[in-house]
Design goal:
Layout (H helix, E strand, L loop, with lengths): L7 E3 L4 E5 L5 H8 L4 E4 L4 E5 L2 H9 L4 H11 L6 H14 L2 E5 L4 E6 L2 H8 L2 H4 L4 E3 L3 E5 L3 H10 L5 E2 L27 H11 L8 E5 L6 H12 L3 E5 L2 H14 L7 E4 L9 E5 H4 L22 E5 L6 H7 L6 E6 L9 H7 L3 E4 L2 H6 L6 E8 L3 H8 L3 H9 L3 H12 L5 E4 L3 H11 L3 E2 L5 H12 L5 E4 L14 E4 L7 H9 L9 E8 L3 H15 L4 E5 L2 H4 L2
Length: 560
C-alpha cells in the first residue's frame, strides 16, 4: 500500500487521526474501532484515542496484541511512536495477568501470572484480609460474595481481572422474539442489533454475560435487550430511568416477544409486582425515607433468582446501585447506553461492575444507512433585554447562567420556529420550570415535568405520538428513554451547563428514522456565560459528525 493511501496518523499521546476521504478509510476504521475509542468525527478527520480501558475492552472480546499492531501498521502513514507501542503492550500484559475461577460453591480461585505481581496484590492490606487460603505457586482463595469488590480493587491498581467464573443460570423463562408484532408488523433484528446481541452473548460462554452496548438514541437499544433475553431465557430484572420508560419496556416486551402479561411485573411507586420479568427504576432502588435510612427496595436485586440484569441508560446508574452490583457478579449483566460519557469519570467502575464495552457503532454510520434520522443542528443567538442585562452584570456566576437561560426573548423565538415547522411534531425542552411554565402558557401547549403524575405523562406522550398534540413542552425528565418516534423538531431553550450527555440525549429524542430531516435548535443568549456552555455542548455534537449552523437574531427577527 502506497504511503499516500494510508489514512492513519498515530500520535505519541495515543490519539489517532483518520482521514475520511482516503480510499482506504473504511478498512482503517474497521481495523482500529475494536481497540480505540472514537473521540470525535467531524467532516474531514476523525479522532480516536487508545487508552488502557479501550485496549482492555478489545482484549475481553478476544482481540490479541498482534492484531492491534498489525491493524495500526497496515494503515499508519508514519512510524508508530515507541511510547504508544509500549503502552499497548503493557495494557495487554495487564489484561490477562489476574484470572478468576470458580472454586466450589462459596469461593473463588485467583491465579496471578507472575510472582512479583502476586506479592504486590497480596501485599495490599485491603486484599490480604479477604484471602481465605493460598494456592501455590501464585494463587489464593477469596469468598465468592466479594467477586465484584475484588475486581474493583484490582482495576484501581491498574490490573483488570479476567473473570472466568461464569454465571448462574437463574430460573428458566420461556421467551422468544416474534416474527410479527402484536400490531401486525414484520419484526426482525436489524443487522447491527443482531451483531450487538451476539457480541454480548458470546455463545453463552464465560466470556459473555457481562458487557455494555453503545448505540445512538433511536436505534433500538431496547430491542437489543430483548434479543439478549431471548438467548438467556431466564428471569430478568430491568432497571430504567423513570416510570414512563418502565411502561415503554413493558409495551415493547408484549409487542415483540412471546411473554404474556402475567409474566411481566411493574415495580414502581404505584405497583409492587415481582414477576419472571420485572421492570423497575433506579429511583425505586435508591429510595429511602431519610439519608441515614436503609434502601427499602434494594433487596429487589436479590429477592428472586434472576439470571439477567439489564441496566437501561447505564451511564446514569447511581452510586448505591453500583455498590449493590458489586455483590451481584454471578448474574449476567447488560448495560445499554447512547454514550458511555460520565461527567463524574466513573467509566472504569462501569467496566468492572457491569462489564466491558462489547459493541459500539458511530452515530453517523447508522444515519447514512437510514437506521436513524438525519438531523440538522442550529444554534440561534439572541440579545438579552436591557433590564436583565443590568441585573446580569451584578449577579453571581450561577445566577448569570440562569438569567441568560431564561431570557424572555426566547419565548417569541420559540413561536417563530413553531410557525416555521407547522406540520411537524415539536418538543420544547428546558431546564428551568418557571421558564417552561411561561412558554407552555404562551403556546397553550401541555407541559411534562418531574411533578407530573406518571399516568398523566403517559396520556400526554400517547397523544403526542398520535398527532393530537402538535407541541409538547418537557423538562429534563424527557432526556432519557422516552420513545416519541415521530418527533422531528426539538427546541432547546435551556440546559444543564455544558453537559455533553444531556446534549446527546436531547438530540436523541428526534432521531427515530423518518422520511423527513429532523431539526435541533438551541437558543442561546449571546455575550453571556450561556454562550460558553453552549459551545461545549455544540463541540460534542460536532464531534459526533453533526454540522452546527450558527445564526444571529436581532429584535427585528424575533418580533417580541
Amino acid at each position: 500500500m502506497h504511503t499516500a493511501d494510508k489514512p492513519l496518523i498515530v500520535q505519541s499521546d495515543g490519539s489517532i487521526l483518520l482521514e475520511v476521504f482516503s480510499n482506504t478509510y473504511e478498512g482503517a476504521r474497521d481495523a482500529i474501532l475494536p481497540f480505540a475509542e472514537l473521540v470525535k468525527s467531524p467532516e474531514y478527520v476523525h479522532t480516536y484515542r487508545i487508552t488502557p480501558l479501550s485496549l482492555w475492552n478489545a482484549a475481553s472480546l478476544g482481540m490479541q496484541y498482534g492484531q492491534v499492531i498489525e491493524g495500526l501498521m497496515k494503515y499508519a502513514r508514519y512510524d508508530i511512536p515507541g511510547s504508544v507501542l509500549h503502552r499497548i503492550q503493557e495494557a495487554f500484559e495487564r489484561w490477562d495477568a489476574v484470572r478468576l475461577f470458580r472454586n466450589g460453591h462459596s469461593s473463588l480461585r485467583v491465579e496471578v501470572r507472575s510472582e512479583e505481581l502476586a506479592q504486590l496484590i497480596m501485599g495490599k492490606e485491603e486484599v490480604r484480609k479477604l484471602i481465605l487460603d493460598s494456592v501455590p505457586p501464585r494463587g489464593f482463595i477469596i469468598p465468592s460474595e466479594i467477586r465484584g469488590r475484588f475486581k474493583h480493587m484490582l482495576i484501581k491498581m491498574g490490573y483488570p481481572v479476567h473473570d472466568l467464573v461464569g454465571y448462574d443460570q437463574g430460573d428458566d423463562l420461556a421467551i422468544t422474539l416474534r416474527q410479527r408484532t402484536l400490531t401486525d408488523q414484520n419484526f426482525t433484528l436489524r443487522p447491527y442489533q443482531a451483531e450487538a446481541t451476539d457480541n454480548y452473548w458470546s455463545g453463552g460462554s464465560p466470556q459473555g454475560g457481562q458487557g455494555i452496548v453503545v448505540l445512538p438514541c433511536g436505534s433500538g437499544k431496547t430491542i437489543v435487550g430483548m434479543g439478549v433475553m431471548a438467548k438467556a431465557r431466564t428471569h430478568t430484572l430491568i432497571l430504567c430511568t423513570n416510570v414512563s420508560a418502565v411502561h415503554q419496556w413493558i409495551s415493547e416486551l408484549l409487542d415483540k416477544t412471546t411473554l404474556a402479561k402475567e409474566d411481566i411485573g411493574e415495580y414502581t411507586g404505584n405497583k409492587k409486582e415481582i414477576k419472571p420479568v420485572t421492570v423497575t427504576t433506579y429511583q425505586m432502588l435508591t429510595f429511602r425515607k431519610t439519608k441515614d435510612s436503609p434502601f427499602e427496595h434494594m433487596d429487589l436485586m436479590k429477592v428472586r433468582n434472576w439470571g439477567l440484569l439489564i441496566y437501561d441508560e447505564v451511564h446514569v446508574m447511581p452510586a448505591p446501585v453500583f455498590r449493590a452490583t458489586t455483590e451481584l457478579q454471578a448474574k449476567r449483566r447488560l448495560g445499554l447506553t447512547a454514550t458511555l460519557i460520565r461527567e463524574d469519570g466513573l467509566e472504569q467502575d462501569t467496566f468492572t461492575l457491569v462489564g466491558p464495552k462489547c459493541y459500539d457503532v458511530p452515530w453517523k454510520e447508522l444515519e447514512q444507512k437510514g437506521f436513524i434520522a438525519e438531523a440538522l443542528c442550529c444554534e440561534i443567538r439572541l440579545p438579552l433585554p436591557s433590564r436583565e442585562s443590568r441585573e446580569y452584570v451584578h449577579a453571581t456566576e450561577r445566577a448569570q447562567f440562569r438569567i441568560a437561560s431564561e431570557n424572555v426573548y426566547k419565548d417569541a423565538l420559540v413561536r417563530n420556529l413553531i410557525k416555521k415547522h407547522t406540520d411537524e411534531p415539536i418538543l420544547v425542552i428546558g431546564q428551568y420550570l418557571s421558564q417552561l411554565r411561561r412558554i407552555s402558557g404562551t403556546l397553550k401547549a401541555p407541559m411534562i415535568t418531574g411533578s407530573t403524575p406518571n399516568a398523566r405523562r403517559d396520556v400526554l406522550y400517547d397523544a403526542f405520538r398520535r398527532g393530537e398534540i402538535p407541541v409538547l413542552v418537557v423538562s429534563k425528565v424527557a432526556n432519557f428513554a422516552i420513545d416519541l418516534p415521530d418527533a422531528s423538531v426539538a427546541i432547546q431553550v435551556s440546559g444543564t451547563f455544558g453537559s455533553r450527555q444531556e446534549e446527546a440525549q436531547r438530540l436523541g429524542r428526534i432521531l427515530r428514522p423518518k422520511e423527513r430531516v429532523s431539526s435541533f435548535y438551541t437558543l442561546v443568549t449571546k455575550e453571556t456565560s450561556e454562550e460558553y456552555f453552549a459551545h461545549k455542548r455544540q463541540i460534542f455534537l460536532a464531534e459526533q459528525g453533526y454540522r452546527y449552523r450558527i445564526e444571529e437574531w436581532s429584535l427585528d427577527d424575533i418580533n417580541p
